[in-house]
Structures are given as C-alpha cells and as structure tokens.
Specification:
Elements (H helix, E strand, L loop, with lengths): L24 H7 L5 E6 L8 H14 L3 E6 L5 H10 L6 E5 L3 H10 L2 E4 L8 H9 L3 E4 L4 H4 L7 E3 L4 H13 L1 H15 L4 H7 L1
Parallel strand pairs: 1-2, 1-4, 2-3, 4-5, 5-6
Helix pairs in contact: 1-4, 2-7, 5-8
Length: 205
C-alpha cells in the first residue's frame, strides 16, 4: 500500500519466551469446577471480537455436544449486552463470562479447555494465539490480520471466515469430537511456536 516492492520486505517476528509451568489439565478443571466439553474464548468484550455470535451458536453446538460449555474471559463495553444475550437465549447453563482475570489464571483456563476459539474481525500478530499454541490447546480462529501467519489451516489450527456461523460451528464441533485431529494440530502448533526464539529474531534482524 505504501509502494514498497514486496521483495524488499522482510518480516522479523518477535521472540516468544515461553510460559510459566502449568498444572495438568485435570487438576485445573477441578480447580475451576469445569466439566463437560469446554470451549474457551478470551479478549476485550467489543463488537469486532464476535462474542455475540459465539454465544448464539451454543444452542446449535449443544445439539451435537450436549455437555458443551462456552467460557469467555475478558471485560469491556459489550459485557452487559452479552450477558443479556445469554439470558435471552436461555443459555445460562451453557455460557459463562469470567470478566477480567489475571494473565496466569487465563493461561490455566486455556490449559483446562478442550478448544480455544477466537472469532475476531481484526487482529495483529496475536501474542495470545502464540500462548495458546504453546499450551497445546487446539485453536479455531479467523482468517484475518496476522492470524494466518500463526495458524496454518488444518495443520496448526483451523481458520474460518470472520463471523461465519456455519464454519465456526463446524470447526468447534470438529475439534471437540475428533480427538486425533485435535491432538495432531496441538502437536504441530507446539513445534511451530518453539521456533519463535530470541536467537532467530536476532539472526533474522
């Protein structure tokens, strides 16, 4: 857009320094009293993060996965409207909003979840997705911004169009029900994020 020839552009990714050690998944599920199939989403509660769509999908998702629950971590200007949507859709037993929680607690929720889903319409290079990859929780997210630079569709996660109800629902159900596929994505994702080293950043610079 600025008139720079593409062959003159090199992208140098920031280093990712890894995570603090986390307890195992079952221990964390007991800590947070989680049961069933847990979908986790996180971010500021604003319109372009698409939380309303995720909430409204849960009735459909539950037809295929009766024990499915959506947990949303984050606060923001849409919180009141999203809580009202949960009540209107009668999804109080299927969807919970945690509000803002400490970063380490969020990582524990990521570890405890079965699938991380991010329905975002705008994203840079998401440090959050790098963290989820490192934790090893399979990801469904949107093909926008820097997401395709971190998630290779079908290899390190699933990419879907923003706010595409059918694609989001299919991706969520696929990863929750196909353990083998989800595990292969998690394994490849962990390997990918391990390449984001300080040494590589310095060398590329």
């Amino acid at each position: 857009a600025w008139g720079v020839a593409p062959e003159k552009i090199s992208v140098v990714y920031n280093a990712f320094n890894g995570l603090v050690p986390l307890a195992d998944k079952e221990t964390l599920r007991k800590k947070f009293a989680l049961s069933g199939t847990i979908f986790l989403s996180a971010g500021r509660l604003v319109q372009w993060k698409g939380f309303g769509t995720l909430i409204s999908l849960m009735g459909e998702v539950r037809q295929a996965i009766p024990d499915a629950h959506l947990v949303i971590a984050g606060g923001g200007p849409q919180e009141t409207a999203l809580r009202a949507l949960i009540a209107t859709e009668h999804l109080e037993d299927a969807v919970g909003i945690l509000g803002n929680i400490p970063h380490e607690t969020l990582l524990e929720y990521v570890r405890a979840a079965d699938v991380f889903v991010l329905n975002t319409g705008y994203e840079g290079l998401s440090h959050q997705l790098l963290e989820v990859l490192a934790v090893g929780t399979p990801i469904v997210t949107t093909n926008v911004g820097g997401n395709p630079e971190l998630i290779e569709d079908g290899k390190t996660g699933l990419l879907v169009p923003y706010d595409d109800r059918e694609a989001l629902s299919a991706g969520m159900r696929s990863l929750a029900l196909d353990f083998g596929h989800a595990s292969s994505l998690s394994f490849a994702g962990k390997h990918f994020v391990s390449t984001f080293t300080k040494e590589r950043m310095v060398r590329d610079t």
